[in-house]
Design goal:
454 residues; alpha/beta; Aspartate Aminotransferase, domain 1; Aspartate Aminotransferase, domain 2; 2 domains; four-stranded mixed sheet; globular; binds pyridoxal-5'-phosphate
Length: 454
């Protein structure tokens, strides 16, 4: 059905540039106007002219059930009438408790304590600080550093950037960041010809062990995204790396911190990525999909033994030192409860298997394209990496902005596909249909052919 813009939503008179947008060179919008979105309906976003776009990136990977999902919307409406917010020190609230109980149920044991934050970066800060303070409380103040993976991304606050490895941010903010030990990534893209994902991940795990052997005495924890380095160009690796990481972190008595912010809640095919390795971290950060894209919320799960290291008399100063004004917001938590109920009550992961298979099938035609270096998939993430010269593995210079050509083409065809550098990817809502995946693939194919032309 065509969408009619309500009169009070007419954008033609509005100055869109009053806002400074994130991760955006605002000058670019002289050339590429901002897209005024007025409505979301399932897998579609609708602009002010009534044009519809398949949201192929789940709006920065949060709208896992698409837009306007009725169950989540209804839960929010109900909560708004009951209690919008209450201070989370000294008071608690029902949706926050209910969501924490559900998170404990759906994550692997022994993760049974939940600390809330309000965005992914804040959850990463919480996990880092909790790990750091744990060692202080244990009388090991010499443990002050973290190990992280090359090519990793954990958000954009100062602590999260310090454990990230995005060159652009490091160049700009380097002097502000704390010093992190970087372990080589198990990213399968870099494996030798003929080497399997498994073998390469195993090989890279040996480098991790060496770093731990050398530095464990000064290290609090090792942080990584399980299975897919999402903002790191959707680079993927084998679950064996997670098993080895657990083994080595145990051996050297260092915390293992999983950032499941992007990969959690079904994105990799299982509810959490760590399930595919049958590995349980000491801290697990979740966010993004947790409210189905309705409201900002995050949580860090940890175990009883870590919780107990903070549990003492007030005067011992062992209590965890961290708070956010909106911690445990009841409306956001009610959205979280409704989102988790969808996983409980509907065969979401089972249904996704057909979508995963369809994504695999449509990706096949890209394999032999002369400007495609790699086609990779983990669950509901499909990535197609463009390359200038396949034989010599010469990438396109990022300044050429090949990805934006794909983006522009896709918009004209009714899809929001937003490549990461030279990587076209699909990370669609779980309500996408097989026909829509087919359409996306055709749009991506045409966009790729436009993008690689000189
Ligand atoms: C793996 C990962 N960690 C952390 C973050 C930061 O989350 P937020 O943008 O909500 O701060 C992101 C965001 O993309 C992410 O992908």
């Amino acid at each position: 059905m065509p969408y009619t813009v309500p009169p009070n939503r007419d954008w033609s008179e509005r100055d869109l540039s009053v806002i400074w947008h994130p991760c955006t060179q605002m000058k670019e919008h002289e050339q590429y106007p901002l897209l005024p979105i007025v409505k979301g309906e399932g897998v579609y976003l609708v602009d002010d002219k009534g044009r519809r776009y398949i949201d192929a990136v789940s709006s920065w990977w949060v709208n896992i059930f698409g837009h306007g999902r009725s169950e989540i919307r209804a839960a929010i409406k109900q909560q708004v009438d009951q209690l919008e917010h209450v201070i989370f020190a000294g008071c608690s609230n029902i949706p926050a408790i209910e969501l924490a109980e559900k998170l404990v149920q759906v994550t692997p044991a022994p993760l049974n304590r939940v600390f809330y934050a309000d965005c992914g970066s804040a959850a990463v800060e919480v996990a880092l600080k909790m790990s750091f303070q744990y060692w202080q409380n244990q009388g090991q103040p010499q443990r002050r550093r973290f190990i992280a993976l090359q090519n990793g991304y954990h958000g954009e606050t100062v602590g999260a950037l310090s454990v990230g490895d995005v060159a652009l941010y490091k160049e700009t903010f380097g002097p502000l960041l704390f010093d992190t030990i970087m372990a080589p990534s198990p990213d399968s893209f870099n494996r030798e010809a003929g080497e399997s994902w498994y073998d390469y991940s195993l090989r890279q795990a040996q480098a991790l062990e060496q770093l731990l052997a050398q530095h464990a005495h000064e290290v609090c924890g090792f942080i990584l995204e399980p299975l897919v380095q999402c903002a790191g160009n959707m680079r993927m690796y084998h679950p064996i790396y997670l098993q080895k990481a657990r083994e080595y972190c145990d051996r050297y008595n260092v915390h293992l911190i999983f950032d499941e912010i992007a990969v959690g809640f079904g994105r990799t095919g299982t509810l959490f990525a760590c399930e595919q390795a049958q590995v349980v971290p000491d801290f697990m950060c979740v966010s993004k999909g947790i409210t189905g894209g309705f409201l900002p919320l995050a949580a860090v799960l940890t175990s009883e033994s870590i919780y107990q290291a903070f549990y003492d008399e007030y005067a011992s100063l062992k209590g965890f030192l961290h708070s956010h004004s909106y911690t445990g917001n009841p409306i956001a938590c009610a959205a979280g409860v409704a989102t988790l109920k969808l996983f409980e009550e509907q065969p979401v992961l089972q249904n996704n298997q057909a979508l995963i298979a369809k994504m695999r099938q449509v990706s096949e035609r890209f394999l032999d394209h002369p400007n495609v270096a790699d086609v990779r998939q983990t669950g509901m993430i499909l990535a197609i990496e463009m390359i200038k010269d396949k034989a010599n593995k010469t990438p396109f210079d990022w300044r050429e902005r090949r990805g934006i050509r794909v983006y522009q083409h896709a918009l004209t065809q009714g899809a929001l596909l937003r490549p990461l550098g030279n990587v076209i990817y699909f990370m669609p809502p779980y309500v996408i249909t097989e026909d829509e995946i087919e359409r996306l693939a055709q749009i991506a194919w045409d966009g790729l052919n436009i993008a690689v032309k000189d």
